[in-house]
Amino acid sequence: MKHSAVWAALPAAMLLAASAQAQQCAHRGGGCVVGPNDHYTCEEAYYQNSIWPRQYISPARRGICTAFDTMTTNGWRRQNLLGPYHFEADGVQLNEAGRLKAEWVMTQAPPQQRVLYVQRVANQERTAGRVEAVQEYLASIQGMGGPGDVQETLVRDDGYPAGMVDAVFTGFKANQPIPALPAAGALESSN
After folding, report:
1. 29 — alpha (psi -120 to 50), left (phi > 0) or beta?
2. Quick one: which of 40, 52, 86, 92 could link to 129 by a disulfide (CB 3.0–4.6 Å)?
3. Over the Cα atoms of the chain, what is R_g?
């Protein structure tokens, strides 16, 4: 019961505070001080309240665009990532999958996204060897017009060996039933 009395008195208290603020603004000749560092005139405060929420639309849009740009950049970093399955068993030289991916990135990806990322490993010498092997391969591709951009990254490649992926798709295709319509009698008996 005590809480309902407080809630009932709250609008009246807010109205009283607002009228006191208006009287203070009128008494000071239109310039009211909100706080020690915030100097607003009553006209400025009224204008900011009258255009609400338009003054927040542009910053909100910029925030959304910035987040979208960050997600796009991270997506391209993952797409152009060379992980452990793109290198030979020795861990330094590119295998066929790595060469094909590097060639695709440098010829088919949008020009601003033609950066290859090499997954960093615990051994810094091995990581440097991988980066050097990728740069040598890019230099050997004809028509590249110069060395490609190769960078190390801490992003992890969650991929699978190409043979495993191929086995899944080949197995699916081999075990797929032959498409056929059901017999005419089967449809009539289901009704």
Report:
1. left
2. 92
3. 33
